[in-house]
Amino acid sequence: MFSNLALLAVSTTIGAALGETILGVTVFTRHGDRTSKHFPGYSLTSLGAQQNFQVGQDYRGIYLDSDSPKRILGVSEDKYVSSQVYASAPDQKILLDTTTAFLQGLYPPLEEVTRLTLANGSAYTNPLNGYQYVHIRSEPSTSPNSIWLKGDDSCPAYTRASSSFKASPEFQQRTEATAPFYARFWDALRNVHDYNPANLTYANAYDIYDLLNTASIQNASSAPANHAISHDISAPDLARLRTLADSAEFAANYGRDEPMRAIGGATLAGAVLARLNETVVTHGRRKFSLLAGSYDTFLSFFGLAELTAASTDFYGLPAYASTMAFEIFTENNVTVFPALEDVSVRFLFRNGSDVEELRAFPLFGRSETALPWSEFVAEMGKRAVTSVKEWCEACESTEGFCMVYSVPTTKWNPAAYAVSGVISGIVVGTAVVLFILAYRKLAERARARKARRARQDDVHRAEMGMPDKGAVSERTDSVGSESV
Ligand SMILES: *[C@@H]1O[C@H](CO)[C@@H](O)[C@H](O)[C@H]1NC(C)=O
Ligand SMILES: *[C@@H]1O[C@H](CO)[C@@H](O)[C@H](O)[C@H]1NC(C)=O
Ligand SMILES: *[C@@H]1O[C@H](CO)[C@@H](O)[C@H](O)[C@H]1NC(C)=O
Ligand SMILES: *[C@@H]1O[C@H](CO)[C@@H](O)[C@H](O)[C@H]1NC(C)=O
Ligand SMILES: *[C@@H]1O[C@H](CO)[C@@H](O)[C@H](O)[C@H]1NC(C)=O
Ligand SMILES: *[C@@H]1O[C@H](CO)[C@@H](O)[C@H](O)[C@H]1NC(C)=O
């Protein structure tokens, strides 16, 4: 399946080149096996938890194990050290569970590292054989930091750009050509309460694939009656449903002439830059970052980073528990963090939990799999969204946290909305509230700036290039902060 180019790349970069030192890694992961997204309350299955756990364990083997040639410089092998590890997920059960399972594999329970002896001589370990509680930053959709993980959510300009695909001749043609194929699945899907035969078209390519794929994996008789879907589907049919879903979802999340379709990939690029940069500015103090998100963000990034030029496989949906990793490394065998000129970045992808190894692929349509830090920053920078302000403006978002960027007198124009007395009353009321919120935010930022000035003699932090932790409200608009 892999193109010759990719094969060549893989054979030359699999495993660390002799003498090379890994300085840090940023990983973006998809959830493992889950119940169908079609039904509310969908969640990771036990199989899915095992998959994410397995992947976390494998990352442990590559980047933490003291015998691994790819061990991260100075990383704590067994004991979780909070300053070394950063983990963040959207505030959604399935992605928080995914992150937890991965981290359970990365830093498994160990009684000796959690053992505590009290003054009276009694010894304790954490429950569950020394379980290690890794801190996960959970980002609700109301937080500006949610955009780094799910930049396509609550983004009207994305929704517009994405659904414009449905008006394309390509879409019409595929819808017509596949109508008889989709119609064949009515028997299998007739129990889905909100489906009728007219719903069986290419317009629902992902939903139909997801319903039938989950049904083919899970035990139909354990599902409620209105969820019961026949799992009697042939492998070629399922493969065709997947390929059709691949094409629909790739087009919805990346388009050369529709840059807003790739907003999710652009914010992820910003997040990856910020995470790797944190390793750089702290001279390797932060070593491992884990972010969790969805398949659409993967596809969006694949398009944006021109991975499809390295292998056409990147047009396809990533398998459950897929991960992409960005290694920051130096070509020499070092014991201290090297000069910036000697730092490079490499992209790797693992398609799921069992079938494949983590493989290196060239980014940006190039042939080399490693780029010097400065070139990587420049290439990612061209594609990335790196501030909340940029996202709010590009998305034309009405999220609360965006209001601070649209001062009432300029962008927000209540007169334009005053179609009736009642509505204008609501609008003016809302405008007043928003104005107060924006004013508070500005006052907060002014306070933060003042506090920051007061701390400017903090030589150590400046030396480390660390973000101003105190100036939280000022920094939430920057992915350079710790709160990506
Ligand atoms: C790197 O250097 C250390 C000593 O500083 C040595 O023990 C190790 O074998 C070297 N590794 C490689 C791959 O050369
Ligand atoms: C030691 O102190 C802890 C906490 O106060 C207590 O639960 C435990 O029973 C004590 N052990 C002994 C041997 O007294
Ligand atoms: C199915 O089609 C009906 C209209 O015919 C629509 O109201 C409904 O939302 C569709 N259901 C799904 C799951 O797309
Ligand atoms: C499927 O689930 C039902 C109900 O939980 C159980 O009785 C049955 O044995 C399961 N089937 C298989 C093949 O495991
Ligand atoms: C990952 O696997 C899926 C099949 O599960 C395939 O369609 C897709 O092309 C693969 N992606 C890559 C990059 O290998
Ligand atoms: C890295 O962080 C430093 C300090 O916050 C900042 O000055 C610099 O612009 C950042 N670089 C990138 C590529 O984000």
UniProtKB/TrEMBL annotation:
Q: What CDD domains does this protein map onto?
A: HP_HAP_like
**Which keywords fit this entry according to its UniProt record?**
Membrane, Signal, Transmembrane, Transmembrane helix
Annotated coiled-coil positions are none
Superkingdom: Eukaryota
Signal sequence: where?
1-19
Family annotation (Pfam families): His_Phos_2
User: Which molecular-function annotation in GO is an example for this chain?
Assistant: phosphatase activity
Where is the sequence biased in composition, kind Basic and acidic residues? 454-463
Query: Which family does the UniProt entry place this protein in?
Result: Belongs to the histidine acid phosphatase family.
Listed name of the protein = Acid phosphatase
Ranked from the top, the taxonomy reads: Eukaryota, Fungi, Dikarya, Ascomycota, Pezizomycotina
